[in-house]
Structure prediction request, 304 residues.
Amino acid sequence: MRLVFMGTPDFAVPVFEALRADGHDIIHVYTQPPRPAGRGKALRPSPVQNAAERAGIPVRCPVRIRHNEEEQAFFESLDAELGIVVAYGLILPQRMLDAPLKGCLNVHASLLPRWRGASPIQSAILSGDRRSGTSIMQMDAGLDTGDVLAEAALDLTENETASTLHDRLSCLGAELLLETLRRPFAPVPQSDQGITYAERLTRETGRLDWHNPADRLDRQIRGLTPWPGAFTTLNGNVLKIGQARIVECATQETPGSALDDMLTIACGENALQILTLQRPGKAMMAASDFLRGTPVPKGTSLGT
Prediction:
């Protein structure tokens, strides 16, 4: 099938590679422009751009599309059978949605209509969902409101992080899309029940409020790994938390205070023992290694 592929992050790459391996003709790739990255702030192409260039497929990186008549006309001129959109990052105007013969399909990392929007993977973990999945959606002008052509579900593990769920859903989405393209499309309207929206994440989303229950904080840590990352502060310095475990206990200590010398921190309910953490500019390390250089005595307050 003659396709235009539109995607940007690592999540989209397995879908791109699966389409090529299955024999589809990807005639052009759209992705976000290179962004400054690293200490030197050098421009870094997106993972999808790297994959497309390795495959010798032309790449376009428009900064905007919705009010870019020239770009919309070029997209129409590609005469594609189908557009495939996977975490592209720009909203497509109706003119582009209608340009391919069969419209545009989106590979979305949730079981729609739950978690429409920008952060479905993280939101599933933050909310304590027991299952997630991938939906193949016929795109329309709304925010993830189009008819669903196929979906596949999976169960979340107790230790699921956004990183592990990201990888599982990316592979699941690639398989599901190939299956969908091999059969006649049978779109089903989304239910008007159970609609939720996944908000765009910011770095501040990761700030731990120790007054919350330990299980909620544990989900926050797992759901925001690797980005934007959960964090607290110690003596005014930011500490990114990579992993923790829930410690069931009854305590009257102030939330955020250390209950021992091993980074067991009182929460609004129960406690969390921090297992791995990271100073700014340093690598993630085990709590035992951190404590050898920076003791955190019982009674120390975090997050203040």
